[in-house]
Write a structure and sequence with these properties.
Helices cover 0% and strands 35% of the residues. The protein is built from no helices and 25 strands. It has a nine-stranded mixed beta sheet, with no helix packed on it. Strands 1-4-7-10-13-18-21 form a seven-stranded parallel beta sheet, with no helix packed on it. Strands 3-6-9-12-15-20-23 form a seven-stranded parallel beta sheet, with no helix packed on it.
């Protein structure tokens, strides 16, 4: 990875901290809506799209190969020392706030919106979406292939088992897994 080809590229960002590494083939859209703190790493083929929203990535966080961050009019905030691993998708419609030291494994999907489908006489596509937002607190580990759905808050220190579908909020230091995710234990036990 290397820093930008020209120093003038720095002016395209809302903020670009020192020692930010961006692979040459990273796909960036809406840079004027991006705030990248020092030592952020954006790996090859990552897609960061903030044309209709905003993205903040905290210091020493990494967005790995082929991960996608797309705002869809919302805000995505990622804290310090976080990793978003390959092929993970984060859609920020209703706003997503991710704390510090969060580990998000490969192939996860985090979407802060839901289709409205309450009226069967109207096509789902015409009923709009709800946007409640998602909060993931500090020191959370989200295992591979998880789905985090709109309106959820994941408490500090929690572990989300691989493949889980989280459709309800998770208390701090919980271990949850399954479809839908259920409490399996506590890290405080």
């Amino acid at each position: 990875m290397r820093l930008f080809r020209r120093m003038t590229s720095r002016n395209k960002f809302r903020f670009l901290g020192a020692n930010v590494s961006i692979a040459n083939d990273t796909r960036l859209y809406g840079c004027s809506n991006m705030h990248l703190e020092p030592e952020v790493n954006l790996y090859s083929q990552a897609l960061i799209h903030a044309s209709s929203g905003s993205i903040y990535i905290g210091a020493k966080s990494s967005i790995l190969y082929n991960a996608m961050l797309m705002t869809y009019g919302g805000h995505i905030e990622i804290g310090e020392l976080c990793t978003v691993n390959p092929f993970t998708i984060i859609y920020g419609h209703g706003g997503i706030k991710i704390g510090n030291a969060v580990r998000i494994a490969a192939h996860c999907t985090i979407i802060s919106a839901n289709h409205i489908f309450s009226d069967p006489s109207i096509q789902i596509r015409q009923q709009g979406i709800s946007k409640l937002g998602i909060t993931i607190h500090d020191d959370v580990w989200i295992g591979t292939g998880c789905r985090i759905l709109d309106g959820v808050s994941i408490g500090e220190g929690s572990v989300i088992a691989a493949g889980a579908v989280v459709n309800k909020s998770v208390e701090p230091y919980s271990i949850v897994g399954g479809v839908p995710a259920k409490l399996l234990g506590s890290r405080n036990d």
